[in-house]
Design goal:
single chain; 153 residues; alpha+beta; 5-stranded antiparallel beta sheet; 4-stranded antiparallel beta sheet
Length: 153
């Protein structure tokens, strides 16, 4: 008779695989815009892993803009609190693309380490944290200069 752990292993593996699949999907949409009395446009940025692009979507009109070329295998998007800049992790390129939200263009590409996956921008918009999946590290980038001044954590 098989033990409970050997019976549960395929179920746990399936749940873990599903979570790994769904987590990037949920994390690949970020929005930029204002939330004032007279709100400006609100744009979602959706990563397209197979085409190495990010597509801006105007949420007011539900229309997609032209895809923005980024590095190989874009995974996650984070936007500065003021909505001016979007950061995109490019897992297979080991970089982060910096997008000017007003022009929908890549203005910088930051080398960040082995398989960048998720990222977060601090509430003041001055720092970006990037997780490196295969490097088992977290990098700290200064958003003002779009550089990585600190060693990996």
């Amino acid at each position: 008779m098989r033990s409970h752990s050997s019976l549960l292993r395929p179920i746990v593996t399936a749940v873990a695989m599903l979570a790994c699949f769904l987590a990037p999907v949920a994390a690949t949409v970020a929005t930029a815009g204002t939330a004032s009395a007279a709100p400006g446009p609100i744009t979602a940025f959706v990563t397209n892993e197979n085409s190495n692009t990010v597509t801006p979507v105007d949420l007011a009109s539900n229309t997609a803009g032209s895809p923005i070329p980024v590095g190989a295998t874009p995974v996650d998007v984070a936007i500065t609190p003021d909505g001016s800049t979007a950061y995109v992790t490019n897992g297979a390129a080991n970089t982060v693309s910096v997008i000017d939200v007003a022009t929908d263009t890549v203005v910088a590409t930051i080398p960040v380490g082995n398989t960048p996956f998720y990222l977060a921008v601090t509430p003041d918009g001055r720092t970006v944290y990037v997780t490196n999946l295969r490097g088992n590290t977290v990098l700290v980038a200064t958003s003002i200069t779009d550089t990585v001044p600190a060693p990996a954590l």
